Amino acid sequence: LTGCVKMDRALEINSDKTVSGTMIYAISDALSELGTTSEESDPTTDLFDTSAKGVTISDYKQDGYTGTKIVLDRVPMEAFNKAGGDTGGFQIIREENKITLKGELDLSSADTGEVDDSEWGAALAKSLFATADLDISVKFPVKVLSTTGTISEDGRTVSWKPQLGEKVD
Fold first, then answer.
1. β-pairing, 65-76 with 18-28?
2. Residues 67 and 78: beta-carbon distance below 8 Å
3. Looking at residue 82, what DSSP letter applies?
4. What residue ranges of the chain have pLDDT lower than 70?
5. Is the dihedral angle over the CA atoms 160, 164, 166, 168 positive or is it negative?
6. 136 C-beta neighbours (distance < 10 Å), count
């Protein structure tokens, strides 16, 4: 069950107070054939208003994964300022020339939200997330002053590669 979960978020915050990019939430085709759906682990509804102007949601089937692809085309920044639910929320705040990105992805708990609390179920969940392909990157219209992630050479893109057992703020 290696490489069973894929989450790829590549966002760009535009200078006109909008956000563009793509988000992919998918599971391996092998896992999909077992009747599992990527919607069960899709935190999108907690992250932003999916009904906002510029949001396109489609099926994703590529590179051995099946799930959901979300394309953002100049989505208003306000669509991202949701309080959030289980994922803790995601906010993009612009005050004059300063942009602050707030959010969290909590993979620190062994509990992945699965109904099966058995030792076998917990071991399976850990196995799935231990090999997950999780990537988050955000490009800013200005140089980044501080971050918990890794800053690119040009100073404008921050990336995170979350791992099981970690909480990314």
1. antiparallel
2. no
3. B
4. 1-3, 34-46, 82-89, 109-131, 164
5. positive
6. 19
**Secondary structure class of 154 (helix, strand, coil):** coil
Q: Which residues contact 101 (CB under 8 A, 6 or more apart)?
A: 13, 91, 92, 93, 138, 158
32 strand-pairing partners:
none
pLDDT of residue 159: 96
The residues with which 95 forms a beta bridge, in sequence order, are 98
What does each C-alpha distance from 4 to 35, 52, 69, 161, 163 come to in angstroms? 13, 30, 16, 16, 14
**Tokens 């009747």 belong to residue:** 35
Cα torsion angle, 55, 167, 27, 2, sign: positive
Residue 35 to residues 12, 31, 57, Cα–Cα distance (Å): 34, 7, 21
DSSP 34-64: TT--GGGG-THHHHS-TTSTTEEEEEEEETT
Yes or no: say if 1 and 127 are a contact pair by the CB < 8 Å rule.
Answer: yes
Predicted TM-score (pTM) above 0.70: yes
What is the helix (H) or strand (E) element at residue 3, kind and residue range?
A: none
